[in-house]
Design goal:
5 helices; 3 strands
Length: about 160
């Protein structure tokens, strides 16, 4: 028995050649990232009230060479994170269930140049227009309050004094 123990301890276990590199057995996927597939699915479906998870999976299965059952957790994870980050809007439901639409900004805002700031003269004209609108609204409110109080005093005057 002692000979077996000596031989077992003498041979190194699990060590290979020193110059050997491990190569990954997994090939790179032929489909785009999940985020791109989901965004394209929502764009392609063009549903007014948003696209459901089931419709998104069906679109991805039809247009990309992927198994929707295997991609389901990745799709759900992306939907939740995209709603939280604001690149998608959830119109119905909670979590990964319900309907989803692309955000009004068109999804990701990276790489897009910002709109130039409006000129000061244009903002001054707009501000002046707002002030005029506010004055008109205030005048209408004041006149309607005057008519209400006048109507209330007229009702009080019509009541008989005996009551």
């Amino acid at each position: 028995m002692s000979e077996v123990e000596v031989q077992a301890s003498a041979t190194p276990v699990g060590k290979g050649k020193k110059g050997e590199k491990k190569t990954s057995k997994h090939a790179k996927p032929t489909h785009p990232p999940t985020s791109d597939m989901v965004n394209m699915a929502i764009k392609g479906l063009k549903e007014r009230s948003g696209s459901s998870l089931q419709a998104i999976k069906k679109y991805i299965a039809a247009n990309y060479k992927v198994d929707p059952e295997k991609m389901a957790p990745f799709i759900k994870k992306y939907l939740k994170s995209a709603v939280q980050s604001g690149s998608l809007v959830q119109t119905k439901g909670k979590g990964a269930s319900g309907s989803f639409k692309l955000a009004a900004g068109g999804g990701s805002t990276q790489g897009k140049p910002k709109a130039p700031k409006p000129k000061k003269a244009a903002t001054a004209v707009a501000a002046a227009g707002d002030i005029k609108k506010k004055k008109k609204v205030a005048a209408k409110v004041a006149s309607s309050e005057r008519s209400k109080t006048a109507a209330a005093t007229a009702v009080k005057a019509k009541k008989p004094a005996g009551e």
